[in-house]
Amino acid sequence: MSDLLERLRDRGWRLTAQRRVVAQVLDGDHVHYTADEIHALAVNLLPEISRATVYNTLGELVSLGEVLEVSTDGRAKRYDPNARHAHQHLVCDACGTIRDVHPAGDPLGSLPATERYGFTISGVEVTYRGLCPDCGTA
Amino acid sequence: MSDLLERLRDRGWRLTAQRRVVAQVLDGDHVHYTADEIHALAVNLLPEISRATVYNTLGELVSLGEVLEVSTDGRAKRYDPNARHAHQHLVCDACGTIRDVHPAGDPLGSLPATERYGFTISGVEVTYRGLCPDCGTA
DNA sequence: ATCCAGAATTGGATCTTGTCCAAAACCGAA
DNA sequence: TTCGGTTTTGGACAAGATCCAATTCTGGAT
Ligand SMILES: [Mn+2]
Ligand SMILES: [Mn+2]
Ligand SMILES: [Zn+2]
Ligand SMILES: [Zn+2]
User: Fold this and answer.
1) What is the CATH code of the structural domain delimited by A88-136?
2) CATH architecture, domain defined by A3-80
3) If DSSP codes are grouped into helix, strand and coil, which group holds residue B130?
4) Of chain A residues 46-85, which have a beta carbon within 7 Å of strand D?
5) B77-136 pLDDT, tens digit each
6) Could you state, in order of their start, the residue ranges of all structural domains in chain A?
7) Which of B7, B44, B28 is nearest to B79 (CA)?
8) Poorest-pLDDT segment among A5-14, A88-97, B11-20, B45-54
């Protein structure tokens, strides 16, 4: 059983067949699927699973902190199971590919105290944009 | 006439009444309105302007590099006329307020060469999240 | 001043993403 | 086995955005 499923069971989550296949699709640390992609992949494993259940399950996983929502453009949100290791994203502007990259130093540190305007800051998202090797001008 | 309108005219843009009021609404460097907010404000100045024209005009301004699109959440995109000075955003998770903040050092520098995976990197977006003074736990 | 072709605008249809809801199915404790 | 709470489901609904064919506008040519 995957780490993810194990942690969920430890939290008293009822492990239904539907939740199991959603977790299974997300398993592996380097995917960034949309909800509809996850639904399509889940249907391969459990043909009768509904779109609503996929959205419900993803919402619960996000609330539990097991999955991150990533909005790299104004399109569909992507769901990132790599919630345990802080990381940032490198996005191809042409094909939308997303890669995980890892911070050098604390990105929060780059915001000077004089630029906080009384906010209580809880996090920072960094998205690098460019062209991937496949899409770059050959 | 605003700087923005002047630059647009210099580029040979046809300055219609509709485009003028959209530019007028965006004038001033610290706004981050949604397309519908811009439409509502534009209607005050030119009652018959359509939503489609607001979207068309915003799209053109973005193509020209005069306005930036900002997607801070999965909701409506926001349009940022402050495209001439590199800056980052500080977003309140409770009320959605956006403030401009200014980088200390080049945020691009924080991505190690070993983490570029053959991408040609063209830019970076940094979004700090937290609670604004109004929304913070009093 | 008038005409005309290309540019711009318009309202509504359409699409995508996501949420909501009431009914049905499921599950596990008693 | 029964029963109440939990989960799932399909379809309705909503927001944001795009598309499109019809119309209006515009500025240069005459
Ligand atoms: Mn990731
Ligand atoms: Mn800004
Ligand atoms: Zn690419
Ligand atoms: Zn706030």
Assistant:
1) 3.30.1490.190
2) Orthogonal Bundle (1.10)
3) strand
4) 48-53, 56-57, 74
5) 999 999 999 999 999 998 889 999 997 777 777 778 888 899 999 999 999 999 999 988
6) 3-80, 88-136
7) B28
8) A5-14
Which residues of chain A approach chain B closer than 8 Å at the C-beta? 69, 71, 73-74, 77, 88, 90, 92-93, 99, 101-105, 107-108, 110-112, 115-133, 136
Distance from CA of B63 to the nearest CA of A (A): 14
Contact A108, A121 (CB under 8 A): yes
Cα Dmax for chain A: 55
Strand order in the sheet with A120-131: A98-101, A88-92, A120-131, B120-131, B88-92, B98-101
- Which of B84, B77, B41 minimizes the C-alpha distance to B59? B77
Q: How many helices (H) and strands (E) does chain B have?
A: 4, 6
* Distance of residue B40 Cα from the nearest chain A Cα, in angstroms: 21
3-state secondary structure of B63: helix
Beta carbons within 10 angstroms of residue A10's beta carbon? 8
Q: Position A119: which residue type?
A: F
In CATH terms, are A3-80 and A88-136 the same topology?
A: no
